[in-house]
Each structure stands twice: as C-alpha cells, then as structure tokens.
Design a protein that fits this description.
Blueprint lengths: L2 E6 L4 H12 L6 E8 L2 E8 L2 H8 L8 E7 L14 E2 L5 E6 L5 H10 L10 H12 L5 H11 L4 E7 L6 E6 L4 E4 L4 E4 L11 E4 L4 E6 L2 E6 L10 E2 L15 H7 L1 H9 L3 E2 L4 E2 L8 H5 L3 E6 L1 H18 L3 E5 H4 L10 E7 L5 H12 L3 E6 L5 H5 L2 E4 L12 H18 L6 H22 L2 H11 L4 E6 L3 H16 L2 E6 L16 E6 L5 H13 L3 E7 L11 E5 L7 H19 L18
Parallel strand pairs: 17-18, 17-19, 19-20, 20-21, 22-23, 22-24, 24-25, 25-26
Antiparallel strand pairs: 1-4, 1-10, 2-3, 2-4, 5-6, 6-7, 7-8, 8-12, 9-10, 9-11, 11-14, 12-13, 15-16
The structure holds 2-deoxy-2-amino glucitol-6-phosphate (AGP).
Length: 610
Amino acid sequence: MCGIVGYIGDREARPILMDGLKRLEYRGYDSAGIAIIHKGRISITKQVGKIAALEEDLNGTHLPGTLGIAHTRWATHGEPNQTNAHPHTDGTGNIVLVHNGIIENYNALRKILGEKGHTFRTETDTETIAHLIEEFYRNGTTFEEAFRMALSEVDGTYGIALITKYEPDKIFCARKGSPLVVGIGEGENFIGSDASAIIAHTRNVFYLEDGEIAVISKDGFVTKTIENELVQKKIEKISFDLERIEKAGYPHFMLKEIYEQPHTVADAMRGRLIEEEGVAKLGGLTPILHNVLRSRKIFITACGTSYHAGLVGEYMLEQYCRVPVEVEYASEFRYRDPIIEDDNLVVVITQSGETADTLAALREAKRKGATVMGLVNVVGSTIARETHGGTYIHAGPEIGVASTKAFTSQVAALTLLTLMIARTKSMSAEDGRKIVKEMKDLPVKVEQALKTADLVQAIAEEFRDKRNFLYLGRGYNYPVALEGALKLKEISYIHAEGYPAAEMKHGPIALIDDDMPVVVIATQDSTYEKIVSNIEEVKARRGRVIAVVSEGDDKLDRLVDYTIPIPMTLDLLQPIISIIPLQLLAYHIAVMRGCDVDQPRNLAKSVTVE
Ligand code: AGP
C-alpha cells in the first residue's frame, strides 16, 4: 500500500525521486521520506502528511547526490508520524531502507535482536529488517549475503529498496508479495512500486518476482533468488503513455476517469467482438480455453468494486451459460476452505493486480486444482502473472482511489466472457449478434449518461449534508446499488448502504423518514413494476427518492423527488450505464463537502496487505 522509488545514475536524484513519489502518492499518503547518499554520507529527510509537506521541508535545503530512495506511506505498524515515516535505519545509521508490506514476525525478531543489544527507535516492523541485516553483516558476511540471510528470516510481505555506506554505489532491492519494478535507462536505473513512478524516464522494465533480490548499479544489475541462484530477467516495454497518468485539465483524477469511460469501455471490447458470428474472442484465455468452456462451476473472487463487478458477472454467466456461479469476497474465500473441484473455473477480478487478499485467493484456488483466470487492469501485475490465463480490461492507469472506469470495463469484459462461453453452449448466433450490437452501442450510451452531470450536481447540492443514504436495485442493478453506495462512502465519508430493493422491507425500511435519501435504480427491465412498488413503500414513509430511470420514462415523475434519465440497453449491460450518475453523485457530494476526492482518508489504491 506504500509507494517506493529509487534512482541511481549521474543526474541529481532528489527531483527524480520527488516526482516519482508524487506519481505513487495514490498508494499511501500519511507520511513520506527520502534518503540520498553523497560522498559516503546518507542524508535522510522525512515528514508526516502528504508529499507536499516533505517537499516544503526540503525547500531551501541542499541535498546533492545521484543515488537515493524514497517512500510514501500507508501506515500498518506504528501511527503516521515523523519517526515512523520511512526510510528506516539500523543502529549505526549505515543501512537505510524503505519497505512496502508487513513483517509478520517482527516482534519475535525484535526480541532476539534486542537481546543482542539492538535498540529500536520506531514502532515499525520495517526497522527490524535494517537491524537484522546489520546483525548478519557484523558477523563478517558480505553485505549482499547479509541482505539475503536477513530476508530469509523474515515472515510476511515486502518490497524493499535499500542503500548503504558499505556499498555506496548500489541499491539493493527485494520482493515478496509487494510489487517492485526496475526501470532500465542509459547509464541510470530506476525502481518503483509500479511503473507510473518511472515511466517519465524509461519504458524498459523488469518485474521482481517473489523471493528475488536485485543489486542495481548505474550501469547494470544482478538478479538472484534469496538462496543465491542467479535469475535472468526479461525486459518488457511499458505500453501506456505518461499523459495517461496526468489530469488532462480535470480538477480530479476521479472525474477524468469517469469521463474516460466511453473510450475505456470501447477499449475493453476492441478487437474482441466478431459481429457477424455474434461471438467474442479473448486471446489471453487460449492456454486454458478448454477448461474455461468446459468448467462445471465458476467461482468469482475479488474485493471492493471488483467484487461488485463479479456480482454482475454471476447474473449474466448463470443466465446465459447455465453454469452455477458463486461470488466470494477474496478475504473470506482464502480462509474458508471452499469446495473446489478440478473442473471448476476461478475468476479473480482486480484493477491493480496486487490486492493481497485476491492474490492469496488465487493461490488457494490453484493449490486446490482449479483453473484460475484473471480479469486484470494493470499489465504485468503479480496477479496477472500468476493466473493460468486471463484478460486485460485495458482501462488504462486508474489513479483515483475510488475505482470508476475499472468497474465498467470489468463488466464489459465479463460480458465478453459470457458471450464467448454461451455461444459454445445454447446461445444462438442471432442472440449473440444482439448482444454484440448492443455492446458496440455502449460508448455512445455512456456518453449520453454523462450528460446527466449538471442534473446530478444539482441533486448533490440538495443532499450534500445528509448523514445516511440508502441505495436500492433489483437484478443486474442490485450490484450497481452496492457500488453506488461504496462510491459515496469512500469519498464523502457519508454512511450509505446498498440493498436488493425487495430486501428493504425486511429491515432497512425502519431507517426511512423524510431525512433519508433513497437512490433507486429503476430502469425498465423485467423487474420494473416490482421496483415501482418498492419506491411507493419508501414514499409511504416520506423517504426522499432519487430515481435513475430509462430515458422517456416519465411514469415516476410525480412519485419521486428526482429522476435521472439514462439510455436503455440489454439488462446484462445496463450496469455499465446505470452506474454513471451514481459515480457523478458521489463525486459532486464529496467535492461539495471539501473531501479529498482522489485520496480519501484512510484508503489507498491497491491494498497489498491483508
Ligand atoms: C474501490 O473504489 C476501492 N478502491 C477498493 O474497494 C478496490 O475496489 C478494492 O481494493 C479492490 O482493488 P483491486 O480491484 O485493485 O483488486
């Protein structure tokens, strides 16, 4: 959840490290720090708060040096303060490192090291690693050996970058569970928790795998396993452009990403639809196609917004492929010992490709013999590399912590999967062509739904000070209600619940009075009449109803407080359009409440710890 950057070369390290940190700030932003080695002396500066606070601290200071590491933190052990901010050092101050992850056995290690005379200055698990390396090094090993031996004592997850006076012209890196990418330049090299930290400087990268270390100098690198076996690394080219991670004139990344959706939905389908045959083809599944098509049960596992997309996937896969589907929170799936047969397919859905619970669920499913496919956004991410096969959703970098375009691209990709499987079963070419045609019309319809922005902003003005919201939907729109509630919760800090509309009278209806806004997704699908009755139940308790309705449907105008008309499409595709006004509602309410929309409190973009 933290962000790590490193640079070694001939250029001044400070501006490169600070720029890299800013690009990683969405990963964690409660404190930050930088360490640069120059003429054998390591200068460390760290500050609580955002990168801007560290930058302010550095203003006017001279921090020369062409080799350094930096870190932006999402605290797990030790509260966010200057002392606990990274980098951390050993007792001598000669070993300095930054870390992303959790050291689970740090207390036990601290006890052992304490008995050997080590004193600890912080509450962090990370500091333990520095002292552990110090301990091995002072027992006469080479520094690299000390580094590897220390890591073999550590339980937990880590992405580490380290500099030391003992090897002043190298950066030592290691990875286990937390991502680390190395960028190869001309006479300089870069390290980042993800490619966005280094793309401004190079497109040539390699990814460290679990259990690997890298010793980076300015003209080269050596990669090994912790057990000292040399590892050859494949240099890959980063595909996305720098401007894809800029705001492009929008006030927030979240709003930019909401407005990117007509394009990103199109990109998710590009080259994957064969209209005349009414089929979809997903090249990334070729290695496992037989197992995917013949799977007798499908599990979908994910977290947060990706889980909500999975719920939409369940509805369509069962409706069109007649295969039983179970959708599970990855954090439950990984520990509940699910019954998995070897003819089962497990679909892991993740935007970042680094979510720890989802990664563990993937590994559990593989251990139990399932075929595991990924629906992933970040190219080259850990989950993408560990599945048996998968599909990239091509939504481009998603910087805003609140996921928006990834959701609509995940649902589009799930529809492609459904179409691909269903056309090998009972779905006719004609029905397939109908779905393909509607999919091709989606970008225009999403564009149309974005035109409700002014209306939604006016509604947001009315409800910006409410303390609670209820979101209701039926069928394919039920997961949309959950997702709409999640968006409002995570960026405006208003308590909101999503519910199947019919479930309301089994409890939540007790919450309804004239102070309770109720957002209802009431598009004209097979359950329309039922949802109208649910709205009447809310109105009977004087609830304030904001209804998302189908364009041209004025039946609800007199019944509800506000209607937001959106284009119609097939039920299975409707979530891609219905979610748009709900994303905008959450965004405008959060902006009006002065919340930090792109970096909401207590959250981070990819949750790499469990
Ligand atoms: C959604 O807006 C949140 N950022 C969060 O719930 C997110 O969806 C969840 O952490 C899963 O992330 P992933 O898709 O990258 O695995």
